[in-house]
Design a protein that fits this description.
It is a single chain. With 215 residues, the protein is of the alpha+beta class. It has helices spanning 15-18, 22-32, 37-40, 47-50, 53-60, 93-97, and strands at 64-67, 76-81, 84-90, 133-137, 148-150, 166-168, 175-177, 197-199, 204-207, 209-210, 213-214. The chain has one domain (15-214): Rieske [2Fe-2S] iron-sulphur domain (Rieske Iron-sulfur Protein). The strands form 4 sheets. A 3-stranded antiparallel sheet has the order 1-9-8, with no helix packed on it. A 3-stranded antiparallel sheet has the order 2-3-4. A 3-stranded antiparallel sheet has the order 5-6-7, with no helix packed on it. The longest helix is centred in the N-terminal third of the chain and has 11 residues, at 22-32. Bound molecules: FE2/S2 (inorganic) cluster.
């Protein structure tokens, strides 16, 4: 049975800024220790120790039901599922348009790689069930750092005039588009994971479960 929503983090705030799980914390320390900032922000309190019993149960793997009604266009909401940050992004028409014409720059534009399998319902141009809503796990496929959102496009961004908006992994510089597809010739080999999920109403999505059952 799906649990209720567990957490909200403001747009642009990475999961590591509020405290990763102990497992993720170790991964981030290994991955990011040399570069400091991102991992260091999450090392103050071991996250697993600070969780209430119900949160531990959720972290262990139960599906998480999320109310997405309040996510504004261009906004991102983070919830925890199995100790991982899961992002829900409400994409604007401009953000969706940014996906066009990127394929030649991406490592796996069709999400065909098997290392991090993409559910069939997300094997499309927007990598999602509803085009405007993208659900993805915010853990880099290189060494497990948490990327940060870089949604402003072009000259409005700090990523260069041709940046279409997406995510940047601050540990070793991998970049991802607004559907979590990794750019080619970057350290990260795979796209960001799209977890199994399903809508139970217009405004509620369950993470960790789909029509085939629980992940
Ligand atoms: S952990 Fe190395 S690029 Fe993300």
């Amino acid at each position: 049975m799906a649990k209720s929503e567990v957490d909200i983090v403001n747009e642009g705030e990475s999961f590591s800024q509020r405290g990763p799980s102990e497992v993720d914390r170790r991964r981030w320390l290994i991955a990011c220790g040399a570069t400091g900032g991102v991992a260091a922000a999450g090392v103050g309190i071991p996250f697993a120790v600070s969780m209430a019993p119900s949160e531990k149960a959720r972290s262990a793997g139960a599906p998480v039901e999320v109310d997405i009604a309040a996510i504004p266009p261009g906004g991102l909401k983070t919830v925890e599922w199995r100790g991982k940050p899961v992002w829900i992004v409400r994409r604007t028409p401009e953000m969706l348009q940014s996906l066009d014409g990127l394929d030649s720059k991406l490592a796996d534009p069709q999400s065909n790689r098997k290392e991090i399998p993409t559910p069939d319902y997300a094997k499309n141009s927007h990598r999602s069930i509803k085009p405007e809503i993208w659900v993805g796990v915010g853990i880099c496929s290189h060494l497990g750092c948490s990327p940060i959102s870089k949604f402003p496009q072009g000259k409005n961004s700090d990523m260069g005039n041709d940046w279409p908006g997406g995510f940047l992994c601050p540990c070793h510089g991998s970049t991802f588009d607004i559907a979590g597809r990794v750019y080619a010739n970057k350290p990260a080999p795979d796209n960001l994971e799209v977890p199994r999920h399903m809508y139970v109403s217009e405004t509620k999505v369950v993470i960790g479960k789909d029509q085939k059952g629980e992940a």
